[in-house]
Amino acid sequence: MTFFTEIGKYLLMIKNMFSKPENYKMYWREFMHQCSEIGIGSLGIVVIISIFMGAVSTVQTAYQLTSPFLQKYIIAQVVRDTVILEFAPTLVSIVLSGVVGSKIAGELGNMRVSEQIDALEIMGINTKAYLVAPKILAALVVIPMLIILAALLGIWGGKLAGTMSGIISSDEFNKGLFMGFVPYNVFFALSKAYTFAFLISSIPAYYGYYVKGGALEIGRASTKAVVVTCVSVLFADYFLAAILLK
Amino acid sequence: MIEVKNLKKSFGDKPILHDVNVVMKPGLCNLIIGSSGSGKTVFMKCIIGLFQPDSGDILYDGKNFTQMNADQKKEIRKEIGMLFQGSALFSSMTVEENIIFPLDMFTKDTRKEKMNRVNQVLERVNLVGANKKFPAEISGGMMKRVGIARSIVLNPKYLFVDEPNSGLDPQTSGLIDKLIQEITKEYNITTIVNTHDMNSVMEMGDHIIYMYQGNKEWEGNSNDIIFSKNERLNDFIFASEFLRDAKDMRMLEETGKISNDRNMKELTSDDAPELVPAPTDK
Questions:
Q1: Which of A37, A122, A193, B171 could cross-link A147 (Cys pair, CB 3.0–4.6 Å)?
Q2: Which residue of A has its CA nearest to B51?
Q3: A123: chain B residues, CB-CB within 8 Å
Q4: Mind telling me how many Å the CA of A218 is from chain B's nearest CA?
């Protein structure tokens, strides 16, 4: 299948998601279920990654800032901006591409192969609206929250590592944290978060929804979904930076 | 009633169905039979709307399904129940949740009314007490019965059954066939069964359509099959020596004659080994 055919099929899937729900209550229930699956399901890994990414940022920044003319609080500024601009949105999204992406592709792939999607279609349910849309909406709600949490935990992890290893005092870190803060950076991080959330949920949904074959093909679809999502996230990361950070 | 008129379907350059015409009546088990690759699954999927036919009409009680828009098709589909080959139960839901799902989606009944209906259909398929079990915890036969329960919970007018006996032992197969037959008569449903199980054909074949290379090769009922002279049908149905013997014995019973290509000697052979007598009780 050509690249353009796949893109067309993907866009049609997105378009066909928009239809009147057969039952709002059932759709809401599915949406809440997906919020829990994506949010709670990924919380552990996000917490661990965020703390360590902040900690490593502090240690490495301190290692590179060797000049005696530079104030220590600069470390906190560098950590804050690195975490908000890049590490929290991009690194967490790359990890979520694997965690959430493979889950979505696997779940939909299994439903397709075991004819559960056909069963829903025959009941008169728009399966794209019922199965795909709640996942994308849940990701759009939950992933930005996870990214905000990751940013906060990353900065806290940086502070923890800095103070515990004696690189920087708590007061100095706090001073740097609030000095020269650019609120636009948060807007930029959230723009990335929403874009990545859409990619992380919709690309694996596409690969899972249209899988053909058996268990082996579900595995292949999941792998392909994760790879394509990761590459898409990186492309989107560059384009957003080029557009929004002029 | 479902009417299929001049149905054609092909995949790419490969034609699968050629001008098929069939009328399926309510209250009857309409069986689609045929060897693998004969087009019976494609035929069934075209009728349900999972495949779009190239040409032809499919009429559900006179309403042309092929010319309907998505919303109109949705309305027809609410009157359709389907049992899939692998049961297609939602693996993350219990038996009860699987059955209540269509009620939750399409009715505004109270929780109590829905539960009453669930228990009613569970009782109908002899699965009382299995409410809280997950599909992974029940046998293949039970899964089929849950599938039947889910497909009849909204009182459908049309029931589609794809290979109801695959993976089941003969005894359980018989029970599933009987259940489908009973439900068809009880609710006056138009039932369409896709099968190549010969027991099903003989037991529940009120109306049988034999597909051969995408064509409707033969049409009749289970009694007509015995007397059919259609060679392709006979080769397909009575593929084994045992089944040919069974056919001839039945013909002998009914008409005093056996099929032209065999002789009485084969059936009444003295060369057959003697049966070992059963041990007597002391």
A1: A193
A2: A118
A3: 77-78, 80, 102, 105-106
A4: 16
pLDDT digits (tens, 9 = 90+) for B145-167: 999 999 999 989 999 998 888 88
What amino acid occupies position A147? I
For B85-151, give the DSSP string. TT----TTS-HHHHHHHHHHHH----HHHHHHHHHHHHHHTT-TT-TT--GGGS-HHHHHHHHHHHH
Distance from A15 to chain B by nearest Cα, in Å? Answer: 14
Euclidean distance between CA atoms A58 and A94, whole angstroms: 21
Best residue in A112, A123, A131 to probe B by mutation, most B CBs within 10 Å? A123
Q: What is the pLDDT along chain A (246 residues), one digit of tens a residue?
A: 688 999 999 999 999 999 888 889 999 999 999 999 999 999 999 999 999 999 999 999 999 987 888 888 999 999 999 999 999 999 999 999 999 999 999 999 999 999 999 999 988 899 999 999 999 999 999 999 999 999 999 999 999 999 999 999 999 999 999 998 999 999 999 999 999 999 999 999 999 999 998 889 999 999 999 999 999 999 999 999 999 987
In the three-class reduction of DSSP (H, G, I as helix; E, B as strand; rest coil), residue A159 is classed as helix
Give chain B positions within 8 Å (CB) of A125. 105
A chain contacts of residue B114, beta-carbon cutoff 8 Å:
none
φ, ψ for residue B130, nearest 5 deg: -95, 10
Is A119 in contact with B82 (Cβ distance < 8 A)?
A: yes
The pTM score is: 0.84
pLDDT value at B271 more than 60:
no
For B185, which DSSP code? H
Which residue blocks in A165-214 are alpha helix, DSSP H? 170-178, 183-209
ipTM > 0.90 for the complex? no
Cβ atoms of B205 and B221 closer than 8 Å: yes
Residue B193, H or E segment? strand B190-194
Quote the CA–CA distance of A103 and B62 in Å, as a whole number. 44
Contact flag A23-B105 (C-beta cutoff 8 Å): yes
For residue B167, which residues of chain A lie inside 8 Å, CB to CB? none
